[in-house]
Automatic annotation (TrEMBL):
Domain of life: Bacteria
Keyword field contains Coiled coil: yes
Domain DUF883 per the UniProt entry, residue ranges: 14-60, 82-110
Protein known as: DUF883 family protein
Matches recorded under Pfam families: DUF883 (PF05957), DUF883_C (PF19029)
Species of the source: Halomonas koreensis
Membrane-topology descriptor: Single-pass membrane protein
Places the protein is found: Cell inner membrane
Coiled coil, from the record: 12-69
Key words, A-Z: Cell inner membrane, Cell membrane, Coiled coil, Membrane, Transmembrane, Transmembrane helix
Matches recorded under PANTHER family: INNER MEMBRANE PROTEIN, INNER MEMBRANE PROTEIN-RELATED
Length: 110
């Protein structure tokens, strides 16, 4: 868990930077629309569209990476659980029975 903390902070920082750049470009576009200069508006609009595309691509890539990492982590945990159950079948049966008794008692109280 501690190994992921620096990666999460870095990803968060990159996301903040991307959104900051995008908002700056949009602010410039809004300010430029006050001018009558059509060339200036067109140039800023193109820059805003480009930054929006880049930000969207980065966010999609980060979302896919986060999904893959979560999927891999869950798979590893499931494999570890499976190995434990195969290595310690009687302990696993005991744990399952104990959990069943506790759940049964909780349900029976209602």
């Amino acid at each position: 868990m501690t190994d992921r903390a620096p990666h999460t902070r870095e990803t968060t920082r990159q996301l903040q930077d991307d959104l900051h750049h995008l908002s700056q470009t949009i602010e410039e576009l809004v300010n430029a629309t006050a001018d009558d200069s059509r060339h200036n508006v067109k140039e800023l609009r193109e820059r805003a569209e480009q930054r929006l595309r880049e930000t969207r691509e980065r966010l999609e890539a980060r979302g896919e990476r986060a999904y893959r990492e979560a999927r891999d982590s869950v798979t590893q945990q499931a494999d570890a659980c499976d190995r434990y159950v195969h290595d310690n079948p009687w302990t696993s049966i005991g744990i399952g029975a104990a959990v069943g008794v506790v759940v049964g008692m909780l349900i029976g109280r209602r």
